[in-house]
């Protein structure tokens, strides 16, 4: 049985949908914090169990009978994320699963300024030490993030943010395709994968230009200091920890941490990766 965690989130659900066209539903299970939200999957024959990385006992049941487990990384950072990941890895090991897969990041790096990247790097270390064969999917930066970064710019016409660098923005759907492939085609991926990225890298000036072209409204890229950006976020109610994390994103991008463009994703899915224009078209052309 294949168990997918986080199946109520975008990536986890996309992975399950792609698995359902490859294997019978009875071979699939999902581990979710809110089983009611996954009720539709249960109606389609997928086993739905409550599983919470903050509740080790729940994972015993959620992971029971698993041969492979896909751990979708937690939506948290720092010691909270690491504790959750350690709990999930230990539960996966104790379940007797023969392989653990984990959604890591192309920028996994213990020295990164962007808070999730050291977490991914340390989690990969936990996987190496688990004694269980593993695959760490080094996913490219989610292209959907550009929609969030555009935010108010779609109304104000100004995309104000700190100095940044190019990012090889990558579509959830493409990454889900590779994750499903990794789960079905055992042995293809061992250990840490190469970076799984889009075919081009764009900085925010180029993102603004694409958004302008799609919406027909001029969006100007305006560069502000890290301090001004952080203060603006906090003044609009963003928690300080989250504001620091967003500033760290720009610091890491201008260091080139997300600029790599790798052919591996396209080779695996057998076509060109979904372009950033296509992602923005779907989100903005309404």
Describe the structure.
The chain is of the alpha/beta class and 286 residues long. It has a domain at 2-140 and 172-192: NAD(P)-binding Rossmann-like Domain (Rossmann fold). The protein contains 13 helices and nine strands. It has helices at residues 10-20, 39-43, 56-62, 78-95, 116-129, 145-150, 153-156, 172-184, 204-215, 226-235, 240-254, 264-269, 276-284, and strands spanning 2-5, 28-32, 47-50, 68-71, 99-105, 134-139, 158-161, 191-192, 220-223. Strand 4 (68-71), helix 4 and strand 5 form a beta-alpha-beta unit. Helix 1 packs across helix 8 and helix 9 (204-215) crosses helix 13. It is globular.
Give the helix/strand layout:
Blueprint (H helix, E strand, L loop, with lengths): L1 E4 L4 H11 L7 E5 L6 H5 L3 E4 L5 H7 L5 E4 L6 H18 L3 E7 L10 H14 L4 E6 L5 H6 L2 H4 L1 E4 L10 H13 L6 E2 L11 H12 L4 E4 L2 H10 L4 H15 L9 H6 L6 H9 L2
Parallel strand pairs: 1-2, 1-4, 2-3, 4-5, 5-6, 6-8, 7-9
Please give a quick description of this structure.
The protein has 286 residues and is of the alpha/beta class. Helices cover 45% and strands 14% of the residues. α4 runs parallel beside α5 and α9 crosses α13.
What brief labels describe this structure?
Rossmann fold, about 15% strand, about 290 residues, two-stranded parallel ribbon, 13 helices, 7-stranded parallel beta sheet, alpha/beta
**Would you tell me the structural class of the helices and strands?**
alpha/beta
CATH architecture of the domain at 2-140 and 172-192: 3-Layer(aba) Sandwich
Widest β-sheet, arrangement of strands:
3-2-1-4-5-6-8
Strand tally:
9
The SSE order reads: EHEHEHEHEHEHHEHEHEHHHH
Q: In what range is the share of β-strand residues?
A: 5-15%
């Amino acid at each position: 049985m294949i168990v997918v965690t986080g199946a109520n989130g975008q990536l986890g659900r996309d992975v399950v949908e792609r698995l359902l066209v490859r294997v019978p539903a009875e071979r699939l299970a999902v581990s979710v914090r809110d089983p009611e939200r996954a009720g539709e999957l249960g109606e389609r024959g997928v086993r739905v169990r409550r599983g919470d990385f903050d509740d080790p006992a729940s994972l015993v049941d959620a992971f029971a009978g698993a041969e492979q487990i896909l751990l979708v990384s937690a939506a948290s950072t720092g010691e909270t994320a690491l504790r959750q990941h350690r709990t999930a890895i230990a539960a996966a090991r104790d379940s007797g699963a023969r392989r653990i897969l984990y959604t890591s990041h192309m920028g996994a790096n213990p020295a990164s300024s962007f808070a999730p990247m050291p977490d991914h790097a340390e989690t990969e270390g936990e996987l190496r030490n688990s004694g269980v064969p593993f695959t760490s999917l080094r996913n490219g930066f989610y292209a959907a993030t550009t929609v969030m970064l555009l935010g108010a710019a779609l109304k104000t016409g100004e995309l104000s943010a700190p100095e940044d660098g190019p990012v090889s923005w990558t579509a959830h759907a493409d990454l889900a395709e590779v994750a499903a492939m990794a789960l079905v085609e055992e042995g293809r991926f061992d250990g840490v994968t190469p970076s799984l990225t889009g075919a081009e890298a764009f900085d925010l000036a180029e993102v603004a230009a694409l958004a302008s072209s799609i919406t027909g409204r001029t969006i100007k890229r305006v560069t502000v200091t890290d301090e001004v950006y952080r203060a603006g976020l906090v003044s609009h109610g963003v928690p300080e920890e989250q504001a620091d994390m967003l500033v760290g994103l720009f610091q890491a991008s201008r260091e080139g941490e997300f600029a790599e463009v790798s052919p591996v994703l396209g080779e695996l899915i057998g076509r060109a990766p979904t372009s950033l224009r296509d992602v923005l078209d779907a989100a903005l052309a309404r």
